Amino acid sequence: MFKKIREELDKGFFIPMPLLKNFLGAVGPLTFVIGKNPKAFIENIPSWKMRIKNLRPPWAHMEDERQYDSRRLLSKEDYEDLPPVRNEKYLRPTRLCESDAPEIRAMAKKLWEGKESEMEFVKAAYYFVKNEKKLVFKTMGGAIQAFRTKGGVCLEQLALLAAIARAGGIPARYRLYALAPTQPMYDVMVKDNPILKQTYEMLGFLDAIHGEAELLVNGKWIALDPTFSDELEAGMGLPVTDFGEEPMWRVRIPESDIRFEGFPILFRHFLIPVAAILRKAVDSINAKLDELREQGREILEDVGREEYNKKVKKSFKITVPSVSEVKAFRNAQLSVKEVGSP
Amino acid sequence: MESNGSLWKRTEELFYLPKEQWKEVDKLIYGIDNYFSYDEKQIKEERVKAIREAFQHHYSNNLFYNRYCKDRGVKPDDIKSEDDLKKIPMIPDKFFKDYPSENPKDVYEWLYRVSSVEIGDYNFNGGSLQNFLRWAEERLKGIVTHSSGTTGHFSIMFRDKITYQRMFFAAVKTLLFSIITPNDDSHFVYPGPVKTYLTMGHWISEGTKIFDDSHRHFLTDRELTMDIVKLMAGQIKGFKDKMKLMVLKKVMAKGQQNLIDLLEKLDKEGKQIIILTFPFQLFDLMRIMEEKGKTLSLGDKNSLIITGGGWKIYEDKKLSSKEFAEMIERTLGVPPENYRDVYGMSEMNGLALDCEGRYKHLIPWIYPLVLDENNEPVGYGEVGRLAFLDPAAYSYPGFIITGDKVKLHEHCPACDKEGIVMESDISRMAGAEAKGCGNLMRGLLTEELR
Question: Which of A22, A251, A291, B397 has minimal Cβ neighbours within 10 Å of its Cβ?
């Protein structure tokens, strides 16, 4: 009994204190802004009515996502000889990270096929989540929900990546942090809704609502963020993030890192009031994301992923030499000048 | 354009580069009488020479830029005419925040690795990054500034003495001597804090040294440290900094009232006033005046108002140039011809100044380009990403791709002043930071936080 309780606590039963503080810190400004913008709040009423008419709760995401169910990619054979469920720290299933689910284990097994190293498997898992699943703003349902539908919010996609990694024998944990958006992200997600915009202006950042999955490969934790698919990045005019690269659509504020193994109790419910209060804005953001993905798909089809990235990265990446290389270069330049001088 | 007054003499004392040290670009910065009236053909030739010389300097003295150019197959000999300028490899402005961590040693090494001038060995032991910037400034004998850091990392711009002198000479001449001729008793007012390394505040603190302390007035003497800036940008650091921020906000709110009182006093005394600020800072000040039913008649003394930095994410509160000029005339009594908006960037050593038709005329040594989504140059009249070649930058390659979306014209559609012009409607491109220094200052003054 005590062992079970200790294990639950160890897996992250309670919300980490910094995360709780961040959430509570956002409640005040959000409430204040809602109070200041009753019109933006009232505009949700038709969306709520439509959901209630369809016997769904006011915060429900209404898109039919059956065609995106990733179980379609699995055959009967994929479900045979599944990898065992492990119970060690960072390998065990945790809240919203159902690494023991048969379809997750089957996908992990499928992604391991033909791979010779852990790195190759992790890379395959990253690209699977990045491009097979989409960023969709809806309430959290965990790794299984993301797997069986079009995708989910960023944290759900991290949960899916962590679940596949754990099922494939790779330890995985989360790192949440505050982020500052770049202009396209701001334009799509913040700009048009007065409640989101004014709350963001008051906070000046988006705190602890985003993160990365950290996977332990060859003794080193690798941070991976599969949230934006290639087509979404291209649609936003940004470089397509390759495995191991920092995405260019957001900037992490490193001082705000919070690491944990599993999501705490009730965490999935935190998004419910937000999804209800911002229902109309959330629907419009999801529609905009679909449009951008479509634009990005066309760009990548026309130009090709590699060619597109080569062009766009020109303005985003530069390599800087080491101090000793610079010193050697300066000395060489100096001697050229000395030799050349009369 | 210049006067024989004490302000001009002081400008020369502080920022003039002796003629024997002039490079090609200095002929344009120090040698031209009027930045907006010149022989266009001659200036075009001199600009190409200046840019070619600056390119040669960075290619020969900056390893990262040398490799960057070699990767792109461009060398100084390839730059012969204006048509060749677009071949010069340009650096995205985001590059200046690519230092690995905020540990001063890391920042020093990064600075060493990207600088086109020798900065010497590391002997800093002052602890914080803020103190390191002070150390770096002394080492360079120039100026070091940082951005608002709202995207997690501060951009750090470092200028050596040569770049510093060029930039401030050009800025003072453009802003203070291109529109009016200030008299020796004119007063400068900036409604923001200047004890900071934040770009606008620090620039104003340095540039206004041409005024004696009794003739320059700021919102507060309180220090705006990097820690407070980080706190404002969302990187919460602790109770002590929160308290400092609270005090600063209170002081700034009080400072606005003090500034209004000061303006009233100077107005009554018949003094000429020069105000330089972000548009929303001035907007806030004027809004308070309107609420209190106060009006001034600063225009009677040929006073000047300059805004810069844009409205950024406060676009919804933005007034059109015409409405803003009307508000200035109504509240401060300054006629529209004595109100100008200016475009500048923390990486650029030169400005684009509004003409009366509200087109922004670029000073002559900077060569702007507009790039399409593939970073290929497009012609005048097309909208795209602004890039520029700035030969005045000596300590870093001033060949920069910005995050700003602009439209350029080779000649002004509204007036006959010289200079390539930018249309006033400037917005941000994909991938650019959503917030900037100005927004941070707006945060200090914003009504909701008072």
Answer: A291
CA B388 vs. chain centroid, Å, equals: 14
B382 is written with which tokens? 């097309």
Q: Which residues of B touch A185 (CB under 8 A)?
A: 434
Tokens at residue B342, please? 């200016």
Nearest to A26 by CA among A237, A178, A215: A178
- Could you give the 3-state DSSP secondary structure of residue A171? coil
Cβ A151 vs Cβ A135: under 8 Å: yes
Question: Does the interface predicted TM-score (ipTM) exceed 0.95?
Answer: no
B61–A contact, CB cutoff 8 A:
yes
C-alpha closest to that of A323 among B141, B107, B399: B107
Whether A237 and B429 lie within 8 Å, measured CB to CB: yes
Strand B216-224 to B187-196 pairing: parallel
Taking alpha carbons only, the member of B107, B100, B160 closest to residue B130 is B107
List all residues 6 or more positions away from B66 whose beta carbon is below 8 Å from its beta carbon. A329, B58, B59, B60
- CB neighbour list of residue A166: distance below 8 Å, 6 or more residues apart: A86, A90, A91, A92, A93, A97, A99, A172
Give how far Cα B62 sits from Cα of A221, B58, B114, B163, Å.
35, 5, 7, 16
Pick from B450, B99, B121: nearest CA to B255: B450
**What DSSP assignment string belongs to B114-129?**
H-SS----------SH
Rounded CA-CA distance A310/B374 in Å is: 10
Distance in Å, alpha carbon of A333 to nearest chain B alpha carbon: 7
CA separation for the pair A145, A98 (Å, rounded) = 10
What residue has token string 């806030």? Answer: B284
Residue B45 φ/ψ, nearest 5 degrees? -65, -45
Out of B92, B95, B234, the one facing A205 most closely (by C-beta) is B234
Token pair recorded at residue B430? 């994909």
pLDDT, position A156: 95
Check if the beta carbon of residue B385 is closer than 8 Å to that of residue B79: no
Q: Is B271 exposed, middle or buried (0-12, 13-18, 19+ CB in 10 A)?
A: middle
Q: What's the mean pLDDT in A186-215?
A: 77
- How far, CA to CA in Å, does B401 sit from each of A120, B117, B163, B370, B387? 36, 21, 19, 9, 4
Task: Assess whether pLDDT exceeds 60 at residue A200.
Answer: yes
Chain B residues with CB under 8 Å of A320 CB are 64, 98, 110, 113-114
Question: Rounded distance, CA A135 to CA B251, Å?
Answer: 44
What's the rounded Cα separation, in Å, for the pair B351 and B364? 10
The pair of three-digit structure tokens given for residue A225, joined into one six-digit string? 């963020």
Sorted by where each begins, the domain ranges of chain A are 2-340
pLDDT of residue B434: 46
* Distance (Å, whole) CA A107 – CA B294: 71
Mean pLDDT for A166-172 is 98
- Predicted pLDDT of residue B436: 45
Q: How far apart are CA B413 and CA B341, in angstroms?
A: 17
Residue type (1 letter), A257: D
Closest-CA residue to A131 (of A226, A212, A222): A226
8 Å CB contact of A204 and B98: no
